[in-house]
Amino acid sequence: MSDAVVTRFAPSPTGFLHIGGARTALFNWLYAKAKGGRMLLRIEDTDRERSTPAAVDAIIDGLMWLGIEWDGDAISQYERAPRHREVAEELVAAGRAYRCYCSQAELETMRETARAAGRPPRYDGTWRDRDPSEAPAGVKPTIRIKAPQDGETVIDDQVQGRVVFPNKDLDDFIILRSDGNPTYMHAVVVDDHDMGVTHIVRGDDHLTNAARQKIIYDAMGWRLPVMAHIPLIHGSDGAKLSKRHGALGVDAYRAMGYLPSALRNYLVRLGWSHGDAEILSTDEMVSLFDLASIGRSPSRFDFAKLENLNGHYMRSTGDAELLAALEALLPYLPGGPAIAARIDETVRAQLLAAMPGLKERAKTLLELLDGAQFLLSDRPIAIDEKAQALLDATGRKIATDLADQLENIPEWSAASTEAVVRAYAETGGLKLGKVAQPLRAALTGRTTSPGIFDVLAVLGRDETVARLRDAA
């Protein structure tokens, strides 16, 4: 085995790429990049009833959106079943595994007897040392590993430290089912070995699996990869992460308007830290990431923190890049395709011009889109209840007067329109806000928007005057 670092992300395609899986993929990717190695992708699709092509597509789509790239082609575990069988037979031939002919009824009786005696319900080794000639006719056997019966199995984990499993607690588990299909425990070991995986970074719910998998590594005389079992993510209340906390698919975070760069930054800080650094570029993450700085305690998912971080990324992202991200999001939103159809070159130029003001007020792309509604609306624009209250008789007169004055100014810009509006307010003995608020209501249909003179500049003379006359 070469010294180059090889990590892997190995999801089961039974649904979307959930947020915990995304973090595991990110940690594997960052560690491989940090060490100049490779990250591989293996789809653990041996559960044929629950694995679907749509779920495989969702996982790959989620990884690509997050900007997590793997090396080589994605590998299907199911397609490697002949190799898994081959290794199981090798173990039988070497005397390190054996065929078990117990029926389901016998196994259940075995478990009941163990429970009655106050012992854990484990397989008792009935066929471990029996002569295969005693095999009953017509029974398809399973293959079980010969687990060590004395001593300890030790995992020196990069996160959890030295974890000791007494071998008396580990039974002779099945590696090949009676139908010839491998168990998850066995397939994972064979795949990781054949793929040259040097470091296994995964959730600490796999820690007990590590002990059983080490037994297979030892039986085959293979080198055990370095293990790092990372704590799971909990909700903000400390309970196990559920949908109400944010245990959603990566696709849901995209649809909620988060930027992949922000989500990457947020996920890397869930369980790993570098001093007090909150905001890290991808290059900084790669240069700093190590396994030693992963904490042992579960991290807590906090939507407010994610939203604030996303707001930072929105403000620091270039206007054109942010507009591209917004347009890329539209196909995933209800009504999004209809909005996309409205964005011609004129509207695109208006959105780009409005972007500095829009992104200052938005923490997500959805909020950005909401703020941009005044540019995506047909005349006469919808005016909400609060804005309508500003367009009373006084407000409508202001709209009419300003339409007349703005229609004739020689040059159209934020500065020139501001001069007209300020002069109008002063002449009428009004505070600027008393003029600007009805103006905003008439032009955007709302009481909040980017700076009103930026709105005027972006809408242009014809649209501005037309909207003021509609409101009046």
UniProtKB/TrEMBL annotation:
<comment type="subunit">
    <text>Monomer.</text>
</comment>
<dbReference type="InterPro" id="IPR004527">
    <property type="entry name" value="Glu-tRNA-ligase_bac/mito"/>
</dbReference>
<keyword id="KW-0067">ATP-binding</keyword>
<feature type="short sequence motif" description="'KMSKS' region">
    <location>
        <begin position="240"/>
        <end position="244"/>
    </location>
</feature>
<dbReference type="InterPro" id="IPR020058">
    <property type="entry name" value="Glu/Gln-tRNA-synth_Ib_cat-dom"/>
</dbReference>
<dbReference type="GO" id="GO:0004818">
    <property type="term" value="F:glutamate-tRNA ligase activity"/>
</dbReference>
<dbReference type="InterPro" id="IPR014729">
    <property type="entry name" value="Rossmann-like_a/b/a_fold"/>
</dbReference>
<keyword id="KW-0648">Protein biosynthesis</keyword>
<dbReference type="GO" id="GO:0000049">
    <property type="term" value="F:tRNA binding"/>
</dbReference>
<feature type="domain" description="Glutamyl/glutaminyl-tRNA synthetase class Ib catalytic">
    <location>
        <begin position="5"/>
        <end position="307"/>
    </location>
</feature>
<dbReference type="InterPro" id="IPR033910">
    <property type="entry name" value="GluRS_core"/>
</dbReference>
<dbReference type="GO" id="GO:0006424">
    <property type="term" value="P:glutamyl-tRNA aminoacylation"/>
</dbReference>
<dbReference type="InterPro" id="IPR020751">
    <property type="entry name" value="aa-tRNA-synth_I_codon-bd_sub2"/>
</dbReference>
<comment type="similarity">
    <text>Belongs to the class-I aminoacyl-tRNA synthetase family. Glutamate--tRNA ligase type 1 subfamily.</text>
</comment>
<dbReference type="Pfam" id="PF19269">
    <property type="entry name" value="Anticodon_2"/>
</dbReference>
<feature type="short sequence motif" description="'HIGH' region">
    <location>
        <begin position="11"/>
        <end position="21"/>
    </location>
</feature>
<dbReference type="InterPro" id="IPR001412">
    <property type="entry name" value="aa-tRNA-synth_I_CS"/>
</dbReference>
<keyword id="KW-0436">Ligase</keyword>
<feature type="domain" description="Aminoacyl-tRNA synthetase class I anticodon-binding">
    <location>
        <begin position="327"/>
        <end position="471"/>
    </location>
</feature>
<keyword id="KW-0547">Nucleotide-binding</keyword>
<feature type="binding site">
    <location>
        <position position="243"/>
    </location>
    <ligand>
        <name>ATP</name>
    </ligand>
</feature>
<dbReference type="GO" id="GO:0008270">
    <property type="term" value="F:zinc ion binding"/>
</dbReference>
<dbReference type="InterPro" id="IPR045462">
    <property type="entry name" value="aa-tRNA-synth_I_cd-bd"/>
</dbReference>
<keyword id="KW-0030">Aminoacyl-tRNA synthetase</keyword>
<dbReference type="InterPro" id="IPR049940">
    <property type="entry name" value="GluQ/Sye"/>
</dbReference>
<dbReference type="InterPro" id="IPR008925">
    <property type="entry name" value="aa_tRNA-synth_I_cd-bd_sf"/>
</dbReference>
<keyword id="KW-0963">Cytoplasm</keyword>
<dbReference type="GO" id="GO:0005829">
    <property type="term" value="C:cytosol"/>
</dbReference>
<comment type="function">
    <text>Catalyzes the attachment of glutamate to tRNA(Glu) in a two-step reaction: glutamate is first activated by ATP to form Glu-AMP and then transferred to the acceptor end of tRNA(Glu).</text>
</comment>
<dbReference type="GO" id="GO:0005524">
    <property type="term" value="F:ATP binding"/>
</dbReference>
<dbReference type="Pfam" id="PF00749">
    <property type="entry name" value="tRNA-synt_1c"/>
</dbReference>
<protein>
    <recommendedName>
        <fullName>Glutamate--tRNA ligase</fullName>
        <ecNumber>6.1.1.17</ecNumber>
    </recommendedName>
</protein>
<feature type="region of interest" description="Disordered">
    <location>
        <begin position="112"/>
        <end position="138"/>
    </location>
</feature>
<dbReference type="InterPro" id="IPR000924">
    <property type="entry name" value="Glu/Gln-tRNA-synth"/>
</dbReference>
<feature type="compositionally biased region" description="Basic and acidic residues">
    <location>
        <begin position="121"/>
        <end position="133"/>
    </location>
</feature>
